[in-house]
Specification:
By secondary structure, the chain is of the alpha/beta class. The chain has one domain: Glutaredoxin. It is built from 4 helices and 5 strands; from the N terminus they run βαβαβαββα. Strands 1-3-2-4-5 form a 5-stranded mixed beta sheet. Helix 2 links the parallel strand 2 and strand 3.
Length: 108
């Protein structure tokens, strides 16, 4: 079972931008209740899409550089990257079916 990968300012380029498969990145913080509510869903998606999608988590408190460069203003924010480019975003603690629909637009 695949788990989300904790990504830092230092590892973001390698883990996300240089990934050979699409990446879903969850920008979150420990103090954010909506972030904690969506975390189990993100973990389930990592397992269910194993091999087709890499799921990463970025703690915005400890990785401010990446969050700032991308322009994260609200959390939780889910970003979808394909071929090193951000192609879509989903903001807020949304239900799993909505995240699945979001992903299905971009996964072949």
């Amino acid at each position: 079972m695949s788990e989300p990968v904790a990504v830092t300012d230092q590892s973001f380029e390698q883990e996300v931008l240089k990934s050979d498969i699409p990446v879903l990145v969850d920008f979150w913080a420990q103090w954010c209740s909506p972030c904690l509510a969506v975390a189990p869903v993100v973990k389930e998606i990592a397992a269910e899409y194993d091999g087709r999608l890499k799921v990463c988590k970025v703690d915005v408190d400890t990785n401010r550089q990446v969050a700032g460069q991308i322009g994260i203003n609200s959390i939780p924010t889910l970003l979808f990257f394909k071929n090193g480019k951000m192609v879509d975003s989903l903001i807020g603690a949304v239900p799993k079916p909505m995240i699945i629909q979001f992903l299905s637009k971009h996964l072949d």
